[in-house]
Amino acid sequence: MMRPPRQKWLLVLVAILLITNIATLSIYWFKKPDHEGGPGHGEPGNREKRFGQFMVDQLKFDTVQEAAYWKLRDSMMAIQKPVMDSMRSSKKRFFDLLNEPGATDSMLTARSNEIAIMQKKLDSVTFRHFQKVRAICRPDQLQKFDTVIKEIVNRMTPFRRNRPDSTFNKK
Predict the structure, then answer these.
(1) Angle (CA) 95 101 103, round 5°
(2) Helix (H) and strand (E) counts in the chain
(3) Are 141 and 40 in contact (CB under 8 A)?
(4) Where are the alpha helices (DSSP H) in the chain?
(5) What would you report as the CA-atom Rg of the chain, rounded to the nearest whole angstrom?
(6) Tens digits of residue pLDDT in 71-108
(7) Which of 1, 77, 83, 169 is 20 to 30 A from 124 (CA-CA)?
């Protein structure tokens, strides 16, 4: 007589656990997480959109400022894309020298100078963009802008130069 109620209780418990697991998996698969590494993280332009939205959110742009900001950002991205494509090609040519046994220092210098020229253009475009964004800020937003820019620049340069655990910093 004791056996049927126990089995019934176990069946109810298994059913509750099964429903809970299905609900948890459904939420995981159908809801897009907003954090890094989630679905859509590797999509081109996703990082730039996050930086743009970060700027809008942090500076609390009004609708007019936000519209002007996104217009400036789109303009900057249109200028940056060909420069970035050129830099990518220059880096490819630089590392293609690994396949040439007779690669000289002058060849390395010439190819690395091509990369440096593209990086200078990219940095210049980015700097001018931030100047224009600063110009659309109200006076009460300027101090926050200066703080946000420092954070954005740190995010734009993800190199491990200053990390104490970096192998490259050990002397």
Answers:
(1) 60
(2) 5, 0
(3) no
(4) 3-30, 46-59, 63-96, 105-136, 142-156
(5) 26
(6) 999 999 999 999 999 999 999 999 999 999 898 999 99
(7) 169
